[in-house]
Amino acid sequence: MEAIPYGRQDITDEDIQAVVETLKSDYLTQGPRIAEFEEAFADYVGSKYAVAISNGTAALHLCAIALNVEEGDKVITTPITFAASANCVLYCGGEVVFAEIDPATYLLDINKVRELLESTPKGTYKGIIPVDFAGRAVDLEAFRQLADEYDLWIIEDACHAPGGYFTDSKGTKQYCGNGNFADLAIFSFHPVKHIASGEGGMITTNDKELYKKLLKLRTHGITKNESEYKNSIEFAVGTTQNSNLNTQNYPNWYMEMQELGYNYRITDFQCALGTSQLKRADVGIERRREIAATYKKAFEGKEFIKGQSGIVEGHAYHLYVIEAGDRLGLYNYLREQSIFAQIHYIPCHLMPYYRQFGWKEGDMPNAENYYKHCISLPMYPTLTVEQQDFVINKINEYYG
Q1: pLDDT tens-digit profile of 147-188?
Q2: Is 174 found in the same domain as 312?
Q3: Distance, CA of 321 to CA of 309 (rounded, Å)
Q4: N or C: which end of the chain has fewer CB within 10 A?
Q5: 294 and 268 in one domain?
Q6: How far apart are CA 40 and CA 159, in angstroms?
Q7: What is the CATH number of the domain that holds 288?
Q8: CB neighbour class for 213 (10 Å; exposed up to 12, middle 13-18, buried from 19)
Q9: Considering Cα of 20, then 21, then 25, then 30, what sign does the dihedral take?
Q10: In the predicted model, what is the mean pLDDT of residues 303-308?
């Protein structure tokens, strides 16, 4: 059996053709493919606006800037996530406060978040960054109600969950990143994600002002929108106010840097690949759900599996995580069989960098216990039935 990774990209001839066509076009970056991808992605998740970014971490950083995170601002997030979900707050000088996970869902526990908010004066915290971990959608309706009570913003880290959803109190499917409850949402297009563009990210929102701000922030804080210009036409043209000016318009070359931004742009050929991949995103999710159902059936009732994510409506299944007895032994055995399972994640609060702020073992018992047992099994649409059977048989064999 050839090597089986925990996740991988699927590149088709159509994907390759889309990239080749773009490489042969007039634009490699800052061209029409970017807007095309943004519009298609916004339509896919159901948001009003989308801004394509160089990667998911950059997307998180720009969200924090757009929401005015400043030195000393406290923001709540989960310890079971990739470090970028927390680091974006530190980039702006803010302070990260971790809250416990729900051991049944692995998601940020809203009850623990409420306890944090109730234990401090109102205004102590500025925002919440819930994560749709493994592809399971956070109940953002409930988080929105809590956030409104304490005047907080929400950034939804939906990197694991394009196409995922939860069902709200009215029975409506609320797709991850649709902007109905979170102020901003972010996605990643890393090769192991649902939609691959090599690197790349997306920010979605329904807030027009945040959208306009993000467009500037991703390009050095520069605008070429004449309606936003602050300098006079005379200055732009290069003449004095006392001279005879023949134009009422700013010259085509003119632009203004109005705030400190970054070069977080994405290329046209990446967006061409992303747009092509997006066309079969729903097919990929259905295959992921089939794989999850097979794992569920295979391990149900097995004593060596301490817990598993099960089958959840709306789950996008970026990962299929089980909690296993003798996790280290199983991990090493699978690698010997060329099955490259992975661990998601080491709790952020116990990373050496975050320990300097006083976080220590015992602060998040649920997250820490989860980490001792979690292992992510191979999960990607091109995983064959034969390969999955091989993975299941080797796990049974190890414990058999």
Answers
A1: 999 999 999 999 999 999 999 999 999 999 999 999 999 999
A2: no
A3: 6
A4: C
A5: no
A6: 17
A7: 3.90.1150.10
A8: buried
A9: negative
A10: 79
Tokens of 388: 């999955």
Closest CA to 136 of 344, 302, 277: 344
User: Which phi and psi angles does 93 have, rounded to 5°?
Assistant: 90, 5
Domain that holds residue 369: 281-399
How many Å separate Cα 139 from the centre of its chain? Answer: 16
pLDDT for res 309: 61
Q: What is the pLDDT of residue 242?
A: 56
- Going by pLDDT thresholds of 50, 70 and 90, the confidence category of residue 245 is low
pLDDT digits (tens, 9 = 90+) for 187-237: 999 999 999 999 999 999 999 999 999 999 999 999 999 999 999 998 998
CA distance 133 to 234: 53
Q: CA 177, CA 183: separation in Å to the nearest integer?
A: 9
Q: Estimate the share of the chain in helix, then strand, then coil, as percent rounded to the nearest 5.
A: 40, 15, 45
The verdict on residue 243 lying in a domain is no
**Has residue 42 been placed in a domain?**
yes
- Residue at 386 is within a domain: yes
Task: For residue 285, give the nearest of 392, 136, 141 by alpha carbon.
Answer: 136
Residues 378 and 264 reside in one and the same domain:
no
- Segment 259-285 shows an average pLDDT of 98
Q: DSSP per residue over 278-324, as a string?
A: HTTHHHHHHHHHHHHHHHHHHHTT-TTEEEE----TT---S-EEEEE
DSSP letters, 30-91, are SSHHHHHHHHHHHHHHT-SEEEEES-HHHHHHHHHHHTT--TT-EEEE-SSS-THHHHHHHH
Residue 148 near residue 127, CB atoms below 8 Å? no
Please check whether residue 358 is in contact with residue 350, taking contact to mean a CB–CB distance below 8 angstroms. Answer: no
Number of Cβ within 10 Å of residue 353's Cβ equals: 12
Q: In the chain, how many domains are there?
A: 2
Strands annotated E in 170-253: 173-175, 184-188, 201-205, 222-223
Q: Is the pTM of this model over 0.85?
A: yes
Show the CA angle centred on residue 206, arms to residues 132 and 153, nearest 5°. 60
